[in-house]
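Q: What would this chain look like folded?
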Amino acid sequence: MIGTLGAMLQRRSHESFVGRDAELATLCSLLSPDGPVVLHLSGATGIGKSSLLSTFAALARDRGATVVQIDCRVVEPSVPGLLAALAQATGASADSVDAIAARLRTLPSPAILTFDGYELFWLVDTFIRRELCPQLPATARVLIVGRHGPVGAWLAAPEWQGLFQPVVLGPLTEHDAIAFLGNLGIDREAARRINAVAHGHPLALNVAARLGRGPTRLRPEDAAMGAVVDIIARDYLAEATDHVTREALEAASVTRRVTEPLLGALLPDVSPRDLMGRLRGLPFVDSVADGLFIHDAVRDAISTGLMSSDPERHRRYRVAAWGQLRKELARSPRSALWRYTADVLYLLQNYLVREGFFPSGYQPLTVEPALASDANAVGQIAARHEGKEAAGVVAAWWHLHPEAFRVCRDAEGLTTGIFIVSKGSDLSEDIIAADPIAAAWAGEMQAGGHAAQSLLLRRLLDYREGEANSGSRGAFGVEVKRTYMEMRPGLRYIYLAGVDVQNFDWCDPLGFEELPRFAQEMDGRTYRTFRLDMGPGSVDAWLGRVVADELGIPEDERRAFLFDADSGELVVDGEIVDLTPLERGVMRLLHSRLGRTVSEADLLEHVWGYRAGSGSNVVAAVIRTLRRKLGDEASAIENVRGVGYRYRP
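A: My prediction, written as structure tokens:
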């Protein structure tokens, strides 16, 4: 039988795979009924984790197993995002753990779920460990692949003992490194010289081999993998004789992923399709369904070099990318919002925000929903840092609303902090009566009708540091970003309470404002309220504003309009525009069918509530007034001659 070229190329790729015999054998233990249930593979960037995963997946399939691969770079790190990706990948009937588990039972076993790039999945690690894995079939296995070691709870939880195995991937041995370079056409002597400075790091070996010479600029003492990849990547850029490809690499280095529209915005005088073709052929660029990814280490090295040598060009590229992504947001369906969010976050240099969504280092603490057994720890932490009245309020929350509590645990499973977080719509009358701060917030939410759009960060306390900066506070910061993802695009307001204003100096750059009218006295201390209004555009519009502020983009260059279908609110150039009930109804219907044509008859039926013959001009009259209110953005409502209207912001 004649196979496909793709199959042949994949086979050759696996045949050229060298070394890693011990690690590959360990991964293959997942195929044994007596092997681990979850295996966690970690290693430095560029060390070859994805190549090892690909080789294992091919081998496992050859042995009759089912391998379901999830690329964490392209999946929203929220529970709905994860379940949707798993349902699609497995062919499950619904986006639920039960449906996914049922589907896995019908597939050839063992069924192995793999998560590559798991450092991007910190936001859902607790769900995977506590909810997803325990409900999978007994024949299922999970392979986690990421830069950092596992969260301590995987190692500390008694139920995972003997079922969870961590594996650390190190550099290639000298023998394997020389064989690796031999497969790239490098003779043995040149391979030795290259490996003397690359130290078995596969990405460094690969990039150095493509230079056509050894990395002579490296000193033997430059043994740190980061330094090796950084210098070799810059060597690669310096040696590139094709200035178009070099410019494309530099421009693309400011973005998380590369797409044709982004390249068109970054380099408007060059064909974006040609640039995509040039980048796709580079040894450190991965191609995925929705674009290209430059390997993190190479991308960071090139971006850092550009920012140092030409900061204005680096900023210009970021501004162009911001403008393009902002346009794409208006056209993005809900399922694609995460890609926009992640792309915008990569443009942001604000450490607090980026770390909240993309933690850059190992996370030693785990955030979990509190259990009944946490009652003593909650009481002890509150008593340690709160006065009698405030501690009583915490106790009331625990008694009346325990599901609002999150706890932070260290590698030994000890509780290091507590966090009270609630949706505004979940506040009960009993909590409002027991907590004066919740009562003040509830009054405003009820008056404004935005309880369902609000998230309440009621109290955060670390065992040692209280509300001051701590490991617990950093871990809870990641946890709350997961909630952001799950509540958007409905999330608009965030309320936050605290005592020492110095502990909240990070609020102002992110758009939080202190509301003095909500200040409450308890135990001789003033509890302050800070509130963030993200606007009708929710999380993504807020992030766009934070990036624009950081880049210093003038207000008159941020022209945009947003329509919030839930509230019926239209914002043009940052100002709320009053709409009549009919205008609001027309906007809602057009918005619900974004990019599709809506007939005049449909508008009459769904907005006016009656059917009418042709010739009625009431729809046209409302469209005219809407366009006047949109001003420069009037073209967003298009006439489709003889059919109706289409909304394309």
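The longest strand covers residues 415-423.
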